[in-house]
Amino acid sequence: AALPCLLTLTELTTCAMSTHLDSLQLQVEGCSFLLQILSQALEQDVEIPLDGNVTNSLVETVRKHCHNEELLALACRLLMMIAASEIAAENLWKVGVIPDLLSILRGFLPNGEICLSCCGVLWSLAVSENADQALLRSAVPVTSAVLQEHLRNGAVAESACSALWALSLQGCLSEDEFEPTTVLLLDALRENPGRAVLVKNVCLALASLLRLSEIPALRLVTDAKGNGINLLQDTCHLHFHDPQVVESICVLMNEMVQYGEMVI
């Protein structure tokens, strides 16, 4: 019964935002209201079928007010929530949102909230059906910069690791990015060993890199901050009762074994 009402409110708010694009205050209030609507829908397990107008309106807002940190934090969080839908992700690809996200990340790198949201959107876009590999390649250095900046912020690091995993699956990393990315992922694991989702994503990202090159395997066993194998063993003991984390570690170790004596 709530769905028609929520849909109407979403459409009216989006329409008002598009009509008064120049009004910063209206954009802030509109994004705040949409966040309330979508959060309420999530709590009630109600899926709101959002059309292209909503994604287009949000991208217009981001482009028009690209220097306003408060608004970008709200708009990017909305984009992250919306991008979880395959249809919305497809719409975001159509409007070419990747350069906007990367520009926001470069401009507001210290802002953890914005970085978390943008990396969440990147993850959704990277795993979507019509992902553009060429465009996604440009996201690798920026996503790595986010992880480096927020290594000790577990939530942001987790989001960045998710994005790097998706980018590695798409084959977006160049050979000269294998080693620094491996080091960065190991650092994320050392700083956040208790975060199960981060651990899983780091291991799957490393496994993905190992399928492409022996460089990550060498770095895993020769890392200056400590042997990566020992780190994985300690992490496995820590998450012994979490089957998903243990499975991801096993996937990584299986890829390591392919390189034989090099990593033993």
From TrEMBL:
The gene is Stkld1_1. It catalyses: L-seryl-[protein] + ATP = O-phospho-L-seryl-[protein] + ADP + H(+); L-threonyl-[protein] + ATP = O-phospho-L-threonyl-[protein] + ADP + H(+). It comes from Psilopogon haemacephalus. It is an enzyme of class 2 (transferase). It comes from the Eukaryota. InterPro entries: ARM-like, ARM-type_fold. Its EC number is 2.7.11.1. Keywords: ATP-binding, Kinase, Nucleotide-binding, Serine/threonine-protein kinase, Transferase. The keyword Transit peptide does not apply. The keyword Repeat does not apply. This is non-specific serine/threonine protein kinase. GO terms for molecular function: ATP binding; protein serine/threonine kinase activity.
